[in-house]
Design goal:
4-stranded antiparallel beta sheet; 24% strand; alpha+beta; 2 domains
């Protein structure tokens, strides 16, 4: 979890930004202009976030950034819209779905390289439910947020599925020394 967790008011501001931006984008309306002068200071610092959309507990879209490059408030707005309209795994969210959409925001810590000797060492070092994991092999890369551990609690299955998401064979992590980074999140939702 990030060192300085957001308070309830800051979380509410981000959830409101995500909800308003999502609804306006789906309705093809202009996005709300973020008045940065009214934002809590913590939302003005560069921050990396993922916005996850679900309907009845099923994934409907998830887009984010692994590294901070813009103020957190703007990052959440951008990724709320992208999760609704640009997640290649799903068709764009339809207006008829808006009332069913549940929004979750994950604020990421900066990724850190995980040094490991071999596949067994990698399995030993991973912390289910705590670590988000990024696998990289040359130009290929993929990530799972820590919340994915709830659905894939086996470390082996987690890494297998992450390799497949990266576009590689499931056992690539066993056969090749991949670059592995980990991060944690502060997660909150509507």
């Amino acid at each position: 979890m990030p060192e300085n967790p957001l308070n309830d008011d800051e979380r509410k501001v981000l959830l409101d930004i995500a909800r308003q931006s999502l609804e306006r984008a789906v309705r093809q309306q202009r996005l709300p202009k973020l008045d940065m002068t009214l934002m809590p200071p913590s939302l003005l610092y560069d921050g990396a976030s993922f916005v996850t959309l679900t309907i009845n507990g099923e994934l409907r879209g998830c887009i984010g950034a692994l590294e901070a490059y813009q103020p957190l408030a703007m990052d959440v707005q951008e990724h709320a819209v992208a999760a609704a309209l640009d997640d290649y795994r799903f068709p764009p969210v339809r207006e008829s779905e808006l009332q069913k959409i549940h929004i979750e925001i994950s604020r990421l810590t900066p990724p850190e390289r995980l040094e490991y000797k071999d596949p067994e060492d990698l399995l030993e070092l991973l912390k289910p439910g705590i670590d988000g994991v990024i696998l990289m092999d040359g130009r290929q890369r993929a990530t799972f947020l820590p919340q994915v551990w709830d659905k894939v609690p086996s470390k082996i299955s987690f890494l297998n599925q992450l390799c497949m998401k990266m576009g590689a064979a499931p056992d690539t992590w066993r056969k090749k020394h991949l670059e592995v980074l980990i991060y944690q999140v502060e997660e909150f939702h509507e």
